[in-house]
Design brief:
single chain; mainly alpha; 9 helices
């Protein structure tokens, strides 16, 4: 008898729960998602959900991150300017989409729940910052960017205007904005000819 019979069913169940939580998140927003709703959509009991996750926030975050993990692209065109444009534009396109608006909801929820803030920082933003770090470090190595850059501050300089528009002003975030943003940021980051 094969002892692995139960394992695939558990992974299948887990995937159904993650998919259900992500679908409900997109349909209804974070505040209206419930463990009961996730259980019903996934065809499982609440106890099954609580077997893997301690609360609603944990399962919803896992569902979101599982669904968006494949969207993490690492550009390497040979140009720091082009790589940064691609990365910032991909993020801008995603966060202004219906699926990506979840990020602004998670940021809002994170203001009241330190665990949510910690999770989206660790699992969503930190990997993207690492990609930015790689792009900037490659630009320094190729002689495109200044040798003495504070890389972390440079990343903040590039991405802060994007989130300022998304979270504060509501102004347009499109490819033209991203192109201007990256161009202006690189005026300060680039080596002088």
């Amino acid at each position: 008898m094969d002892k692995k019979i139960g394992r695939p069913r558990s992974e299948e169940t887990k995937k159904a729960i993650l998919n259900a939580s992500y679908e409900l998140l997109l349909e209804n927003g974070f505040n209206t998602v419930t463990v009961e709703g996730i259980a019903e959509r996934a065809g499982v009991s609440k106890a099954t959900i609580y077997k893997w996750w301690p609360n609603k926030a944990a399962v919803v975050l896992d569902g979101f991150f599982a669904a968006t993990e494949s969207m993490l692209q690492v550009p390497d065109t040979g140009s720091a300017r082009e790589d940064l444009f691609i990365q910032v534009n991909n993020l801008a396109t995603f966060v202004t989409s219906t699926k990506g608006k979840v990020i602004t909801e998670l940021i809002a929820e994170g203001q009241f729940d330190a665990n949510i803030a910690k999770e989206y920082r660790i699992r969503y933003f930190n990997p993207r910052r690492l990609i930015s770090r790689q792009i900037i470090e490659r630009g320094i190595q190729r002689g495109e960017l200044k040798n003495d850059l504070d890389v972390e501050l440079s990343i903040d300089l590039i991405f802060a205007p994007l989130f300022y528009r998304l979270l504060i002003t509501g102004d347009t975030v499109d490819a033209a904005f991203v192109k201007s943003l990256v161009s202006y940021a690189l005026i300060g980051l680039s080596k002088k000819p």
